[in-house]
Design goal:
The chain is α+β, with helices and mostly antiparallel strands. It contains 6 helices and 10 strands. α1 packs across α6, α3 crosses α6 and α5 crosses α6. The longest helix has 21 residues.
Length: about 270
């Protein structure tokens, strides 16, 4: 599943191609995603200018004067900027045709993504209203993490994957951040002291920052596609390395299940 670094990589990759461009037309081939694409989306967007492209958690926000187009990539979605009208393939569900001669194409084999519209007069979309702070923002700090976890006995890995605590720390980056902070993923969230909380905040910021620079762990956006995507494999310390030696101490990396997801950690380095 695309996580925050992948979504941010996508945003950075396509922003310069679409910001300031007017939408000439909208082609919807498959409206049935996680939620149906609004039937009047073309009417809402045609002739309108994309003012900016931002990100909130894993949502991409296309800002217009009269509202916001919200796109979530789901488990298998991606956005590509095309400079020619390449024939659509089976899982290419919609195109935004732009005034600058380019088109933005959404592809999603599993159709768990979303394309939603929120009118400006209705305020923020309900999906965005209760989200925690962005992990790379000043609002996500030691005091916030201590306060959010003060009464929580759940495992710290599950706590930092909770979007009410902080957004965008998915499964891969939770394991990697806890390793960098030297914190065992089984620890109760409320057991972390201020120093450990500060270490974890710093580790989350560093891990996500490094992943964004590297292009994410599972995908990279691309322009003028020939159907082949570029992929970057994160040089993980622990994720996906069960049974292999720790890169720091040479102990065997362990794998457990937490919240129906795989967790990887080093029992020697993480306490």
């Amino acid at each position: 599943m695309p996580e925050l670094p992948e979504v941010e990589t996508t945003r950075r990759g396509i922003a310069s191609h679409i910001e300031g461009a007017e939408i000439k037309s909208v082609i919807i081939r498959q409206p049935r995603l996680r939620w149906p694409i609004p039937a009047d989306l073309a009417q809402m967007l045609e002739g309108r200018k994309i003012l900016s492209l931002s990100r909130r958690a894993k949502y991409l926000l296309f800002s217009f004067e009269h509202g916001t187009l919200i796109i979530h990539l789901g488990m298998s979605g991606n956005l590509r900027v095309l400079t020619e009208a390449f024939p659509a393939e089976k899982h290419d569900h919609f195109d935004l045709i732009l005034s600058n001669g380019k088109r933005l194409r959404y592809r999603d084999p599993r159709r768990f993504g979303a394309c939603l519209w929120q009118a400006a007069e209705n305020g923020p979309h309900p999906l965005l209203q209760k989200l925690g702070p962005e992990p790379l923002s000043e609002q996500f700090n030691t005091d916030h993490l201590l306060s959010a976890n003060s009464n929580r006995k759940i495992a710290i890995k599950l706590a930092i994957m909770d979007n009410h605590t902080v957004v965008g720390v998915g499964n891969i980056y939770a394991s990697e951040s806890l390793f960098r902070a030297k914190i065992n993923p089984n620890r109760a969230a409320n057991s972390l002291n201020p120093q450990e909380s500060a270490q974890l905040v710093a580790a989350i910021k560093a891990t996500l920052g490094d992943a964004i620079i590297a292009g994410g762990s599972t995908l990279r956006d691309y322009v003028d596609s020939d159907g082949k995507a570029g992929y970057f494999q994160l040089s993980a310390f622990v994720y996906g390395r069960a049974g292999m030696p720790c890169r720091i101490c040479n102990s065997e990396i362990k794998q457990i299940r937490q919240g129906q997801r795989s967790t990887f950690y080093c029992p020697h380095c993480q306490h």
